[in-house]
Design goal:
The chain has 159 residues and is an all-alpha fold. The chain contains seven helices and two strands; from the N terminus they run H-H-H-H-H-E-E-H-H. Helix 3 packs antiparallel against helix 7 and helix 4 crosses helix 7. About 3% of the residues have low confidence. Bound molecules: heme C. The site of heme C (HEC) has 21 residues, from helix 5 and helix 6.
Length: 159
């Protein structure tokens, strides 16, 4: 009973090429979904930036992210004990060192560390934690976009 049903389906598909075209379209759609799904964990910093841009678009006066603002945010003390650079150093392309634990931290700039900004969950977790520590509050979408713009603007040469 079962084998003959399967056989019939097989020959049906062979006789009607339209069926297999729509089947391959489904495969294409599934692949596109996997590639775009955040849970796939393979986003690029451009995808992340686009998400923050959509969020920041509601902020009055927002036009575009600024690497210069991001750089300042990264280097500033914000009137508190820590700066981003306290642990990630003044040059985010360099190895960092945790101010408290002394543990080394891989470079933050994608040019020096391709794994950076590829996992939205990881990025959000650390933005939340580190912005609270450094600014005393969470960063806004605009600030996160500014920071990523700064970090991705860094090339191979020291500036
Ligand atoms: C007290 C030390 C410390 C300070 C200060 C700090 N960070 Fe970090 N940061 C870490 C550690 C530890 C990690 C996680 C380890 C790792 O990813 O290498 C991390 C990870 C990150 C990540 C994850 C990126 C990714 O894709 O992997 C981002 C983004 C980040 N920090 C941004 C910032 C920004 C922006 C500031 C300033 C507002 C800041 N950090 C200040 C220690 C610090």
């Amino acid at each position: 009973m079962l084998p003959s049903t399967r056989d019939r389906r097989h020959s049906d598909e062979a006789d009607r090429p339209g069926r297999s075209i729509s089947a391959s379209m489904r495969v294409v759609a599934a692949v596109m979904f996997l590639v775009s799904a955040p849970s796939a964990g393979a986003e690029t910093w451009r995808d992340l930036l686009q998400g923050y841009r959509a969020e920041a678009a509601g902020t009055p006066g927002f036009t575009e992210f600024s690497a210069a603002r991001g750089r300042q945010l990264f280097a500033d003390s914000h009137g508190r004990d820590w700066r981003c650079s306290s642990c990630h150093t003044d040059d985010p392309r360099a190895m960092g060192r945790h101010e408290v634990t002394g543990k080394s931290i891989q470079p933050l700039a994608p040019i020096a560390n391709a794994a950076r900004f590829t996992s939205p969950r990881k990025v959000e977790k650390w933005f939340r934690r580190n912005c609270r520590d450094v600014l005393g509050r969470e960063c806004t979408a605009r600030e996160k976009g500014d920071l990523i713009s700064y970090l991705t603007s860094l090339g191979g040469e020291r500036q």
